[in-house]
Structure formats: C-alpha cells, structure tokens
Amino acid sequence: MPTVHRNEWLWALAWSGVILLVTSLPYFYGATISAPGTQFSGFVIGLEDGHSYLAKMQQGRAGYWLFRLAYTPESHRPEPFFLFYILLGKLAGLTDLPNVVVFHLSRLLTVPIGLLAFYYFAAYFLETVKLRQLALLIFGFTGGLGWLWVTLGGSTELGRMPVDLWVPDASFFLTALTFTHLPLAQALLLLLSVTGLEFVRHGQKPVGFMAAGCGLLVSLIHPHTLPIISLILGLYLLQQNYRQRGQLAKGLSRLVLLTLPSLPYLLYVWVVFNRNPAFVAWRMQSQTFSPAPLHYLLGFGLTLVLAGLGLVITWPAVNPKYRFLHVWAITVPILVYLPIALQRRFLDGYQAPVTVLAAVGLLWFVNRMGSRFWQIAVIGLLLVLMSLTNILLVAGAMITIKQRSSPVFVAEAQVDAAHWLAERTEQTVVLASYAVGNYLPTVADVRTFVGHGPETIRSEEKQEQVKTFFGESADDAWRLALLNEFGIEYVYFGPDERALGGFIPDQASYLQQVYNHGSVQIFRVVGKRN
Question: Do 82 and 438 contact (CB within 8 A), yes or no?
C-alpha cells in the first residue's frame, strides 16, 4: 500500500478547495441574484436529475426509509434504494434547512473526498510526488476537446457531442459540478480498485475487509460499479496468470470473497429491476448507450493521447501493478460497445487509469526538454488547454443563470403552491405540466403524473396526455376518465399549464378550487370515481 506524507495530503486538500470554489461559483451566483418573485432552483446542468435527487431527499425528510418513484402516479412497492439521499433528507429535516442547501453543503465534503481518494489511487502506482501531483491536476481540472466542438458549431444534443460536456463518468470536474453522490461514488470506486487489486495479488485479510467494505458501500450508490471493477480485476488476473493455473485460481477465489458481502444486495437489485413493474419500466426507459467513438475520443482529447504515450512507456516495466492500468485502459473501449443497454456505465472510473498513464506520458515528454523553465511552461500551457472545456461549462452555467429563466429559476407563486401542498398532502397524485411535475416532489410529499423521463412510467405517453388535458381538443368525459384512471386528486394550474392550451378548470364541474395565489390555482378533483 502506498505511503503518502502529510504535506502531500495538505497539497491535495488545497487543490480540492480550489475545485470546490470553481465548481460552486455558479451556485453562489444563482443564490445571490435571486430576486423577489423568483427563486434559484439550485441547479443549472442536469436540472431534471437534480430535482429528482431533491425529491429523493424529500422522501427521507418525510419519514420514509424506502424509495418510491415520485414522478409516476401508479402505485408500486417501495424499495431500499438511494439511501444516501434518503439520509441527506433526514439530515435536512433535523437541521430544518432546505433540501437544496443540504445537497450543496454535502458537496463540500464529497468533492474533497473524491479528489483525495484519487491521489491515494495515483500514489499506489506512482512513486514520485511530482508524478502524483501532476496526475491530480490532470484528473481534477482537465477535460477533452468539447470546447473545440462547441466553438466549431457542433451539435449540443445529448448523445451527439463529446462526453466531457455531458457524461460525469468521463470527467471528475463535471462530477464535482453536478451531483453530490458522484464524487463519493468515485472515491469508493478508486479505493475499491486499490484495495481490491492488493487483495487479489497478496491476500492480506485487513486489505480484503477494506475492499469488501468499499464494494458494499459503492454498490449502495451505484450497483453497477462492483461488477465492472470485478470484471477488470478478473481480466487482470487472467492476463497475469494465464500460464499459472494455481495462481489464477487463488486470485479468482480472492476476487469472489471480495464480492460476497455485496452479492445479496446486488441480487436483490437485479430481482427488483426485473420483477417490480414500476422499476422494470424505469429500467427500460433508462438506457445508457454509448455515443459514437468520435465523441469518446474528443471527450478525453489530449489526455488520451498522453495516456497512449504513458502506456507505451510503462508497458515494458517490471512493476505488475502497471498491468492493471493497462488492462483497464485497453478493455473499457471494447466494453462500452458491448450489445447491452449499460454500455456507458463501463466508463465508471475510467478517467483514473487514463490520467495516471497520461501523467507518466506528459512528464516523460517534458523531461526531454533541457530547460526547467520550458518544462514548467509546457506543462502549464497543456493543463490550461486541457481545461478549456471545464472553463466553458462554468462560464456557460453563469450565463444561463444570468438570464433568470425557468426552470433554472422557479417563480415564487410556484414555490408557495408547492409548500401549500406540502402542508396538506401525503403521497397524493398531482397533475401538472412536465416542468412543474419535476419540481413539486422536491418540496412536497406528492407523486406527480409526469415529471422525469426514466422515472415516469410511459413518460412520453403521459407527456402527450398532459398536453391533451390542458389543451382545447379533449372533452370533459376524457379528462375525468384520465383523472379517475390514475387516482389524481389535485390539478395544478399555473403559467406552464395555461401555455399548453385553452382549458379553463373553473368551468369544470368535477374540479373544485382549493388554492389561489398569484398566478397559480390548485383544484381538487371532486368528480365521480370508478
């Protein structure tokens, strides 16, 4: 196991503070420019998913320990998922702080944990402090060539642009900029990689217990992580010991022992997502297919080029630990195009081995220069150039926030209506537009008819039904049938719903107005139910 001195930890912690500061700038800015009548949602990138995590926190705040889909009206059995956000919600309730505040305060812990875990990971493979520190700077601050793609007018549609612009698994900076559980999952994955590799190689029991614990904890956040790392470890053992069956068998048996504590939970997850109808629908709608290879190549950019150089340099090395990096770096580009729906999930943690190899390649390259001044200048220039995508992401977030547009900013009338529902409802089904439906469960213990792509059963169909309901073409018989079919108790009516068509709920005999404040009214369904 690596030896990391106190000064190294302090250095890494200081740079963690820099990343925290930079990635928090958009959120500080959004909070400061919230004006009377509007409220900053707390998210800029991945806003729909951000609200879904707040909705999970709200379930914990409301007293639940099991997770249920808040964005679909169908009744279903809750399951023991998203425990991290359930616990954050309970903490928010204990401190009486808004969910979004606790969410971002938790980033102050998880981002440094993720970066320090990477430093430990890098120290396991790299002996010199200079290489470790260079690897951390590449890992924490750099991205690919997404900035160039945007500058040249490339598509900004999800799935059709470089991965450093939209896939957190490809960029720790993007991870730190978005959701608080991602840096924590990265930390556990990297610790699992180091302890798992050490255990399968040497079999020390304390290290094995650490690896098994990391595997279990990361499985509670990302159930796909342990199987992926186990596959990489298995391929590494096969590559190292294919001629020594005894050693191979011993290593594989240790790998099995490492995974045993997590297997019951992983098996349970598999059963739920194949047997619980609501979660089956979620799985079918949550496909993570890979983009075109070009978007991976551009997404890693110069880091991938330097990693290729580092791979060539370390390939003849006697140190067998490098082979683990080699196996991981070479295998993932194949795995991400396997004919299964989890293609992009194999990218989880991939930036770490690529970055370590890139640090080796970059230092070798600059050491060919005689002058120390030029060595430092080239490293600095390359780091800046490799960080342009992340600068673009932060600048774009700031510009978006400055516009104060919906749904990045939520109208005060919508916030007040959500709090009114929070005081009077419990697992009540509410019909609203898609954007409002995405927001309401972040504040109230409600289930919305539609509000999240994967987490709403038959999401596209329900989005069309919402448009029809608030439009002019449907008759009252159809509307009442829809309300009865899904057990809808309240109809939310605000600016977004008015924009969908000419429906006038005041004229509907089956709706009774129970709330009217500003531009928002809420109606209780009083029509006959089946």
Answer: no
Phi-psi domain of 475 (left: phi exceeds 0; alpha: psi -120 through 50; beta: other): beta
Does 131 fall in a domain? Answer: yes
User: Do both 382 and 434 map to the same domain?
Assistant: no
Q: Kindly state whether residues 317 and 192 are assigned to the same domain.
A: yes
According to DSSP, residue 457 is labeled: T
Burial class (CB in 10 A: 0-12, 13-18, 19+), 263: middle
Task: State which of 398, 427, 454 marks the end of a domain.
Answer: 398
**Helix segments in 96-224, DSSP class H:** 99-125, 129-141, 146-151, 172-177, 181-202, 205-221
- Output the pTM of the full model: 0.95
Give the chain's radius of gyration (CA, Å).
Answer: 25
SS3 labels along 389-419:
HHHHHHHHHHHHHHCCCCCCEEEHHHHHHHH
How far apart CA 193 and CA 170 sit, in angstroms, is 17
Helix (H, G, I), strand (E, B) or coil at 38: strand
Name the β-bridge partners of 525. Answer: 511
Are residues 199 and 304 both part of a single domain?
A: yes
DSSP 128-152: SHHHHHHHHHHHHH---SHHHHHHT
> pLDDT tens, 351-395?
999 999 999 999 999 998 878 888 999 999 999 999 999 999 999
Q: How many CA atoms lie within 13 A of 329 on its CB side?
A: 26
For the stretch 57-76, pLDDT in tens is 999 999 999 999 999 999 99
Burial 452-463 (b: 16+ CB within 10 A, else e): bbbbbbebeebb
Of 375, 366, 296, 283, which Cα lies nearest the Cα of 335? 296
3-state secondary structure of 67: strand
SS3 339: coil
